[in-house]
Batch of 4 targets.
Target 1
Amino acid sequence: MRHYLQFSDLNRDEINHLFLRAKVLKHRFKNYIPYQPLTDRMLAMVFEKSSTRTRVSFEAGIYQLGGSSIVLNTSESQLGRGEPIEDVARVISRMVDIVMIRTFDQSILERFAANSRVPVINGLTNEFHPCQVLADIFTFVEFRQSIEGKTVAWIGDANNMSYTWLQAARLLGFKLNVATPPGYEMKSQLGVPLDTGHLTVFTDPIEAARGAHIVTTDVWTSMGFEAETDARKKAFADFTVDADMMKVAAKDALFMHCLPAHRGEEVSAEVLEGPQSVVWDEAENRLHAQKALMEYLLLGKIDS
Ligand code: CP
Ligand code: NVA
C-alpha cells in the first residue's frame, strides 16, 4: 500500500507515469469517453481547512472514475469534538478505499496514515501541497514539455507550496530560485536540511525571476496564519509579481498560482489575467492529475 503524503513519496518514474496517465484521462474526459476502473470504490475527504478546487477536483474525479465520495468537515464531525486522529483513521479506513486529508501539521497526516488500512493523499498541510505541484508541473509539461533543467522562480512566502516545489526540483532535476522578505526565508523542513543543490535564495524578487521559465507565487498569508495578516502585508509589499517582473523572466515564461489569488497583493491583475498566465489550466489539471494519482494508488500502473 502506498500513500502520497509528500511529493517525494513517489519517484521520478512514477511521477512521469502520472503525467502520461493524466494526459490520457484528460483526453477521455474531454471526449466524453467513459473510463470507470474504480467502480464501487469510495473516497473519503477530511477537511480541517477550507477548499474549493481540492474538493471539487477530488469529488468530480472519483465519480468520473466510477466511484463515489464522502466529505467530512472538522466542524461537522467528531474530529471537531476532539476524537483522536488515530481513531478517526482506523474507523474511516475500514469503510472506504482511499482517503484525502487537508489539515494543519504534517504530523497529523502522518498519524492518520500510520493508522490507515487504505492509501492516504495529502490535500494540503502547513508543510506541503503535493497534489497542486503535481498538477502544476503536468501543466508545464503540457505547454513546454520537460521541466528538467529549467528554472522556476518562487516569489513571496516560504510556505507549503514552495517546499513542495523544492522537493519536485530535486526529484525532476530543475532549479528553484526563491525570493522572500527577511524573516520569511526557507528553512530546513521536518528536520530535512535545505537542498542547496537545487535551491538558490534571493532577497530581490527581480533577480530571482531573471531568466526563469516559470514565475510562481501564492498568498502572503496561508490558511492557519491569519493572525499574521497585517504584518505580512507590510513585509511582502515589494514582492508583488507584476509586468516588470515578468519582463525579466524568460521570453516564453509561464505565470503560475495555485489559487485563490489576491489581485494587487502577491500578483497584479494584469499578470494574473495576462497571456503568460496558466492559472486556470493549473486548476483544471488538478482533476486530471489526481485521477491519475487515485488510479495509481488503487490499481498500480495501468497502460490501457
Ligand atoms: N489550490 C487549492 O488547493 O485550492 P483550494 O484551497 O480551493 O482547494
Ligand atoms: N499556501 C496556501 C495555499 C492554498 C491553496 C495555504 O496554505 O493557504
Target 2
Amino acid sequence: MHEYIIVVYGASGDLAGRKLLPALYHLVAKHRIERYIIVGAAYEATTADRVMDRLDTFLHDVDKEKFAQFRKNFYYHKLDFTSYDDYVALKHQVNELRVTYGFKAPRILIYLAAASDFFCQITEFTARAQLAERSNVADGAWARLIYEKPFGSNLASAQKINACIARHFDESQIYRIDHYLTKELVSNIALVRFANVVFEPLWNGRYIDNVQITLLENDTIGSRGPYYDAYGAMSDVVQNHMLELLAIIAMETPERLTGDYIRDRRAQVLDHVKVEDVFLGQYEGYQQELNVRADSTTETFAALILRINNSRWQGVPFYLKTGKALTKKETKIHVVFKPVTCLTETCPAQANVLTIEISPEAGFSLQLNAKRPGQRNELMPVTMDYCHSCIFGKQEVQAYETLLEGVMNGEQSVSVRFDEIEAAWRIIDAIHKSELAVHIYKKGTAGPEELADFNKKHAIRWLS
Ligand code: BG6
C-alpha cells in the first residue's frame, strides 16, 4: 500500500475548498488513497477544522465515517508564501507527522493552488526546505509538483516562472494543470474521433464548415475580484481551457493516445493558430464588484474567430465564445458539417452537427436530417443522443479526481507541457496588444447587444 504526503499550498482558498479537497476526499472514500497525510498551508490564520467545515457546501453524498477519517488526516499550517522560516516549520511538522504515521517511503505530492506570482517563490523555498525531498526512490517514492492554471499572466512571466522551476526540479516531476483536460467528455473527444471510422475521414476542411467552442457561465466573478480583474476572460479561460479544447479537436492523429504523443500534437495546433477577429464585453456592475478597479476595462465576455494555418483546416473558422453573468452555465463544442447537395424539393434547413456537451450534462449528439412522415420528400432534423451522465451519473468533482489520479500514476497528458503554454500565451498576448473596445452587457443576458454586428460581419450562427 503506497504512502502519500500531500501538501496543499493555498488550502484555505476558493479552489481548494470547491474542487481540490473534495476531490481528495472522494479518492480517499473510494480507497484510491489509503495511507496518507494532507497538510494544508496558507496565509489565513485558520484551523484544520474550519477548513474542513467549509467543505460541507461542496461535498455531496458524504459517508460520515469516511469523512471523519479524512478530517483526522488533514492538518493545517499557517504559512506566508514569502517567508522561508515558515517552510522550515512546515517541514518540521511534516517530519513529525511522518514519524507518527510510520511512513517509510512516502510519495510526495505538492499542490500549488496559489496565484502564479508566487509559483517561483514557493518552488524555491519548497526545494530549499527539502519539502519535496524523495526518500527511498527504490521503494517507488517520488515527489511531484502540481501548478494550477493560469501559468503566468503573459508569455514573459510564464517563461520566467518556468525557468525558476527548472532550477529546482526535473521536468518529469512537474504537472501544469488544466482541469478541463480531465473532464470525462474532454478525454472522450479524442477517443470518439479516433475510435470511430465514421468521424476521422470527415475531420477536415473539406467536410467541416466551422467549429464552435462555447464556455458560458451564469455566475459573476463572486469574491475573486483581485485575481479576475488582473486576468479577465481571455487569460482566465481562453488561454487554457478553451485553447486546449481547440487543440484536442484539431490535432493530427497521435501515434498513441498518451503522454507526449498527445502533447506534441496539441502543441502543433496551438503553434498554427491565427487570430482573425475578437469581440470583448464586460457585464454591467462589474466595476462595483469587490476589489475590482472602479475604471476597470477587464473583459468578462469574449468572442473570437481563430484559424488554424495547416492543410487540414484550410477555410475552417473556429469560433470561441465565453462569458460570466450570462443566462446559463454550459460548455459545448459544435462541429458543424458542410451542407450536402440538395436532391429533394425541400432542402435540409440544417447541416449535420456533432455536439459534444462537456457540462452541465456530459454527452454527445449528432444532428442528422431524416424524412418527415408523409407523401412529400420533406426533411426534418433529428438528433441521435449519447447521454454519458445518464448512464454513468453526474460528475461534479471528477475532473480533479481524475487529474490527481493521473498525476499519481505519472500520466503526463493530464497536464500541459510548457510549449503548449507558450504558444497559448503568444496568442493571448497578441490580442491584448490590440486594446479592443469592451462592450457593456446586462447580467443574465446572452452578452453585449453589439455582438449581433460582429456576428453579422462574419456570418456567424452560434448554436449556443
Ligand atoms: C476556472 C476559472 O479555471 O474554470 C473560472 O478560473 C471558471 O473562472 C472555471 O469559472 C470553469 O470551470 P468549470 O469546471 O466550472 O466549468
Target 3
Amino acid sequence: MPASLVQIQQIFDKKLEGKKVKIRGWVYRKREIKYTIFLLIRDSTGVIQCTVKKDSSAWEMADKVTIESSVILSGMVKSDKRAPGGYEIAVDQLTIVGLAETFPITKDYSEDFLRDVRHLWLRSRRMTLIMRVRSEVLKFIHDFFRRRGYVEVSPPMFISSACEGGATLFGLKYFDKELYLTQSAQLHLEALIYSLEKVYCVAPSFRAEKSRTIRHLAEFWHVEAEAAFTTMEDMMKLEEDLVAYICHQTAKKCKKELEILNTNIEKLLKVKTPFPRITYNEAIERLQNKGFKIEWGEDLGYDEEKALAEDFGHPFFIYAYPRKIKAFYCKTYRDNPELVMSEDMLVPRIGEIITGGAREDNKEELIKRLKEFGLRQEDYEWYIDLRRYGTVPHAGFGLGVERLLAWILDLENVIDAVPFPRTIRRYYP
Ligand code: NSS
C-alpha cells in the first residue's frame, strides 16, 4: 500500500499508529546513536521524531542529510513513549529535496545575531508560534469590526500632509514632487465616514522614529477606525470591547501556542470591561505623588506611562489632555478649551497601545488649531472641506498591532511581533 501524504500534526491528532505515511519538511535536529539516526523533522504543523536504522535503504541519505535540509520521507508510524509527542516514524525511504549548507544558527543565539539572520530565524519554533498568533489576532480584529457593522477600507500610503506632526515623517520623491509615507490613515478614514459612517482599516504606518526603545518601529501595522455621529466616550467603549475580545479569543483559540511560548494566559482571561478611566489631571497628580518631576501641561513619557500602568496591572484609559500636547485634529472641550477630547489606552510594561478621541468638527475651530500648530491651511483644504459639507461629530482611534502583540505574548520588544522589523538600524533582511 502506498504511503499517504500527511502533515505532522495529523499523525498525533489521528493517532496513525501502524499506518504508513509520507511527510514533507525540514530537518530540525539530527543525532546518531548505535546504528540509528534520529531525525527531528518539522513542517508548518509540528515536529516528529523519525528513526533510520543502519540496515534501512534510507540510511545513506539519512547519513548525508544536514540540519535544515528539505526532505520527503515515508515510513511506519509507531508509538514510542520516549519520542516527543509519543509517536515516531520508522523511515524506509528518504529523499533529500534541498541539501542545506552548514546552517549558521548553531551556537550564537544573541538577539543581535538572530535579528541579522531574521530570514532564517523565522524558521524557529518561537517565531513560527508568534507569527501564528499574529495571524489569529488579525483575524479576531476583522471579525470584531465586521460584526459591529464597520466597513473595511484601503487608505493611501503616499500622502501630501502630516497627520501626526512633521518630526517623524518619511519624505520621498514622488515623480517630481516631495511626498511622505503615511503616519496614520486617520484623515482619509474621516473622509470615508461621510458615506460609509463606520470604517476601519489594517495597514502599515511609517514613522522616522530615532528613539531606540522596546516599543518603536519605523514601520508598524496600524488598526484604525472612525465613525460618524460618535463621541469620545462611545469610542472608548468600542476600544475596550475590541481589546477584551482579542484577549479572550487569543486565550481560547491560541492556547497551545501561548503555552509553548510561556505566556501568562491568566492576564488575558482577567481582562474585563469597563477598563478603569482616569483623566490627565489625575494622572499628573498620581505621578507627582510617586515622586515624578512632571508639571501639568507636559506630555507623559514611557517611564511615566509604565509607572501608572503598574497601579492598574490591567488595560486602562487616560483622557482629557491639554490642547498643546495632542494633535491639531483633536476636538476641544467646549466648556474648557484648554483640554481636548483625546484618550489613550495603556497596558502594563508597554504603556500606550491605542490613541483615539473626538475630532474637531467645527471649521473655524479646526482652522484655529492648524494655526496653533504652525500648519499651512492650504495643505489641509480637503480636510477642512469635510467640515464645510455636512460636518458631524465623529471619533476614531489607532491601535498598534505590534504593541498589542508584545503585551499579549509578553515579548520583550515589539521587534519580535513582526517578521521583518524596520527600525533606524534594521532594514535588512
Ligand atoms: O500616533 S498615534 O498615537 N495616533 C495616531 O496615529 C492617530 N492618528 C490614530 C487614529 O486616531 N486613527 O498612534 C496610534 C498607535 C499608538 O498608540 C501605538 O500603539 C502605535 O500606533 N504606534 C506605534 N507602534 C510601533 N512603533 C511606532 N513607532 C508607533 N507609533 C505609534
Target 4
Amino acid sequence: MKISLIVPCFNEGKTVALFYKEVIKVLSKIKYDYELLFIDDGSTDNTLKILKEISKENKNIKYISFSRNFGKEAAMYAGFSNASGDFVAVMDADMQDPPSLLPDMLELLENNDYDSVATRRVSRKGEPVIRSFFARMFYKLINRFSDADIVDGARDFRLMKREMVDAVVAMGEANRFSKGIFGWIGFKTYWLSYENNERIAGETKWSFWKLFKYAIDGIINFSQVPLNLASWFGIIMTVISFLVMLVIIFKKILFGDPVAGWPSTICFILFIGGIQLFCIGVMGQYLSKTYSETKRRPHYIISQTNDENIKKIG
Ligand code: UDP
Ligand code: MG
C-alpha cells in the first residue's frame, strides 16, 4: 500500500523546504510507502531549484515543472493524473494543511467505510472580513443553485481512495473547479474540522479579484440556473407589464389621459435594457465555457520532471 501526496507550488521558495521537513517527519511514522509529487506551477523564484535538491536526496520525490503558471486546478489535475498511490491527498505547500492530520485521516479511511476524508476549517481567523463575507455568500449561492453540494469552509486538502481519484481524473473538463468535482462524483466523505492556520511564510497567491472570478466560474461550471434567469425575468416582466397595461387602460377610461410620464418611461426602458444586457452577459459566460471546452486544449504542459514515465502534455 502506498500514499501519494500532491503539493502544488507556485513561488513557494520560502515554504517548500519547511513543508518537506515537516511532512517527512509524519510520513516516516506511517506504515505505508509514500510518494511526494511536487508540482511547480511555473514559479519564477527558486522553488524548482529547491525541489531538484530535495529530490536528489530522497527517491520518493517526484517533481513536475510546468512550462508556465497554469493555476492550482491544473497543478492538482497533473498530480491526480500521475499519482500512483492507493491513497492520494492534495496539500498546500504553506502548511495551512497540517501534515500532522494525515495519520488520523489514514486511520479513518482504513477502519471505516469512507472513500475520502475531507477537511474544513471552522474559523476564518486571520482573513479579511470582506473576503469572509463573500466566501459565505458564495457557498450559500452555489449550494442553492448547483447539483454538487459544497461544504462551507471546505479546503482542497483531502485524502482519497484510488476509486475516487480515478473518478476525479475521468472528469476531464477544461474549466476545473475541484470543490464542485469532489461533490459531484459523490462517494462517502468524512468531514474533519480544524482551526484555520495562517501561512508560515510568503504570501497568498489569491487576490480578491482572482478569488471572485474563481467563485463565478464555480457557479457557472456546476449550475445551469443562471442560464434560465432570462426566461424567469421574461415571464415576470410579461406579467407585470400586463398588469400595468390594465391599470393604464382603466385610468384612461375613468380619468382621461393628459400627456405625462416621460420619466417613468425612461426608467422602464433603462431597467429592461439593464436586465437584457445582464441576461446576454450570463449567456456569454456559458458560451465562453463551451468554447474553451470544445477546443480541448491540454490542461498543462510539463517542461521538466525527474520521472520519464510522466506524459509531458496532459
Ligand atoms: N498555487 C498554485 N498555483 C497558483 C496559485 C497557487 O499551485 O496559481 C498553490 C500555492 O503554491 C499553494 C496552494 O496552491 O501551495 C494554495 O495557495 P495559497 O496558499 O496562495 O492560497 P490560500 O491558502 O491563501 O487560499
Ligand atoms: Mg495558503
